[in-house]
Amino acid sequence: MDQLYEPTNPLSMPFECFEYSSEKKHFPVREHWHYFSELLMGEEGVMRVTRNRETYEIHPGEILFINPLNHHSIDSADGRPVRYLTIKLDLNQLNETPSYAPDLRTLMLEAERIHLPMHISAKDVSETHMDFMVRQCVEEYEGHAYAYDLKIRAMLYLITTSLVRIWIRDGFTLQADEIRTDPLYSITRYIDQHIGENLKVESLARICGLSYPWFAKRFREIYGISCKEYIEQVRLSKVEHFLLFTNYDLNYISRETGYADCSHMIKDFRRLKSMTPGQYRLTHKK
Q1: Which residue, 57, 91, 129, 145, has most beta carbons within 10 Å?
Q2: Which residue ranges form the domains of the chain, and what is each CATH number?
Q3: What does pTM read for this prediction?
């Protein structure tokens, strides 16, 4: 594995949203890359972000969008503390796009290919209310209130739509069938939609039109874990949401999340959380 690869793990939710302060966390952020897209918005101080050998200064209120596989690092432009908001997202799982438009990941990669600006001015950010939406995403993610994931999804659609409209205003056009994408990049969407079924890695490989060994190798290269591990973690994430936000019994939850039986689910959950699903529900609902 490339030493610069940074594994991230949004599991069944296609995002992580958080605040990063140079005074509270490790800084500067070394050069790295990951499969997921990343959005940075300055809050305090001036960030210096190097992305694929290009350097940007991100002032408060400005946004920089970083596509998957882009090498990037983050530092302070003047040595002073910086604070910024980060959203890491898997665009493949934000799949509700109109029929006349390409999927979001394809659109973003094409925008990068033709050198559309990924650095958005504070004026454009403010006028499209993207600053408010980014802050809402972080607040919802930290709060984990009921349906927080649904609200964040809604905000992410609004943010990406605002970004595309800025590009269209400046002359960007793209037909949905202009680009063909690697089907393996969208397999996480399929896993999420079919997690209640008995998913087999061999079947997923066939969906992508790949042999099992090549699919398994490519999946680990892209996501940092095996496809079997990914499916297991998606299931456990779904179980956690059922425990937190519903009163369904464990047998029902195990069926809905694709487990062969309840005991298997309990065993996997205890290994991940160091407590049984029942203990987890009781602790967190208190």
Answers
A1: 91
A2: 15-169 (2.60.120.280), 183-285 (1.10.10.60)
A3: 0.70
